[in-house]
Amino acid sequence: MKWKKIGLISGAGPLAAADIYSKLITECNLLGATLDEEYPEIILYNSPHLNVSEEGNVASTEQTKKALKKAVEVLEREKVEIYGIGCNSIHAFIPETKMKLVGIPEAVAQQVSKNWKKIALIATRETIETKIYQRAFQDKNVELIYPSEEQQKIIDQCISLVLQFNYMKARALIERLNFEMLQHADGSILGCSELPLAKPLTENTIDCNQALARALAKAALGA
């Protein structure tokens, strides 16, 4: 099997990228890789300076841009051909590079059911305010439903709980919130890479980490 070299930028947070990496390996297996030598080269670079808060928001735009630029340069030196970023919030600060970015919002948009007309976006304030999902869905005939202020506070709390490894409490909160938002939508998006770690269970919810892993594997193989 001939794969392009894959890069994955981690650090906001590291657990999310580890989840994406694990799902990426599974997706490569589904595309035919079984023996060790049949899997692609993958460079996982963890940056501790991306400056994203416990609620998943960027605290300093300039520091985030600088750290992200350095991470991209590391991947470039390793001759990475395609790459992903394990954080939705910092997709608004992508530096220029010759490498192909497989963006999370675009990967999620590819998985949306054609029958969905309204989709609940469960994401950080930063992700919603920078409109990265709005741009990814601009050619889709769907309406994005956003969390209320009270719901956003629950999302912020869930992200913080995941970063503290308190998965049980985070799962209880996000499952209740997801159920509530699905009352007004056909499906929902876990649009923060920490949230899938809480593993809410519903058939109508898209895991953004799974979506990125699948898109990266397909892009690397040219599938």
How would you summarize this macromolecular structure in one to three sentences?
The protein is α/β, with parallel strands linked by helices and 223 residues long. 43% of the residues lie in helices and 14% in strands.
Care to describe what's here?
Strand 1 (6-10), helix 1 (14-30) and strand 2 (42-46) form a beta-alpha-beta unit. This protein has helices at residues 14-30, 61-77, 104-111, 125-129, 132-136, 149-163, 167-182, 208-221, and strands at 6-10, 42-46, 82-85, 100-101, 118-122, 143-145, 187-190, 205-207. The chain contains 8 helices and 8 strands; from the N terminus they run E-H-E-H-E-E-H-E-H-H-E-H-H-E-E-H. Helix 1 (14-30) packs across helix 8 (208-221) and helix 6 packs antiparallel against helix 7 (167-182). The protein has 2 domains: 6-103 and 211-221, Rossmann fold; 106-207, Rossmann fold, CATH 3.40.50.1860. It has a 4-stranded parallel beta sheet, sandwiched between helices. A 4-stranded parallel beta sheet has the order 6-5-7-8. 43% of the residues lie in helices and 14% in strands.
Summary tags:
Rossmann fold
Specify the overall morphology: globular
Q: Order of strands side by side in the largest beta sheet?
A: 2-1-3-4
Tell me the Rg in angstroms.
17 Å
What is the count of structural domains?
2
Provide the structure class: alpha/beta
> Which architecture of the largest domain does the CATH hierarchy give at level 2?
3-Layer(aba) Sandwich
Query: What's the overall average pLDDT, rounded?
Result: 91
Strand residue percentage: 5-15%
* Percent helix: 40-55%
Main beta sheet: strand number and arrangement?
Answer: 4 strands, parallel
For the record, the CATH class of the largest domain is Alpha Beta
Low-pLDDT residue spans: none
Query: Helical segment tally?
Result: 8
CATH topology of the largest domain: Rossmann fold
Give the end-to-end Cα distance, rounded to a whole number of Å.
12 Å
Order of SSEs, N→C? Answer: EHEHEEHEHHEHHEEH
Number of strands: 8
